[in-house]
Amino acid sequence: MSFLEQSREGHVLVLTMSSPDTRNALTGDDQFDDFEQTCRDINNDMSVRCVVLTGAGSAFCAGGNVKDMRDRTGLFSGDPFDQADAYRRGIQRIPRAVHALNVPIIAAVNGPAVGAGCDLATMCDIRIASEKAMFAESFVKLGIIPGDGGAWFLPRAVGYSNACKMAFSGEPVKAAEALQMGLVSEVVEPEALLTRAIALAASIAANPPHAVRLTKQLMRASEKSSLDELLDKSATFQAVCHAEPDHAEAVAAFFEKRPGKYRDK
Asked: For residue range 89-101, what is the model confidence (pLDDT) as tens digits?
């Protein structure tokens, strides 16, 4: 069975990490392969306009397998050169795959998101939390560092000071504090989490898909572009959008006060 179970709600793809017995820990090549292949498939499927990522069971994602760390097996076996290579060829495939997604992805954080699980949530564009959610950038508690890109994603999610507070202390952040620091956009009752995440995803998916994908590219580009570079890219993308049939349909729908009907190609 695939680690990422898939279900469709119209143009919304729901991905559920489905290893509740391990609290959806990220430990094996099968999981890394699954993230890579799923993200590639999404990018090639214009009928997918938004993605929701959540976890089965009580946890969102427990991060790495601490037993494997103790036993020096799997990702944590071998000498330092072996381990560095294992990170590059292993779990680091997830941040690269998720960051390369062309469509928005929403993390519906149903429970604890610890270590690499916390980082996985920050790889997503939007985060909605259950009242039972908890976030912990807890690597220092085990004498290690965020090896999966957390030092890049977390400051972009919460700002440098808050990121340092989480990463240096390793202490957990409950849902209410996560909302206050901007780590999540909303906190909802546990039973309403997936419904709310899918509703938000559907509101995104109702927009012209090319415009949404290009908007996401601009948002990603803003992380490393100068203003002049981003303005130039924006002008190019805007010209492309004006030439798209979906633009004409969106304008017509606006004046006719009806939902737009957009293409899946």
From this structure: 999 999 999 999 9
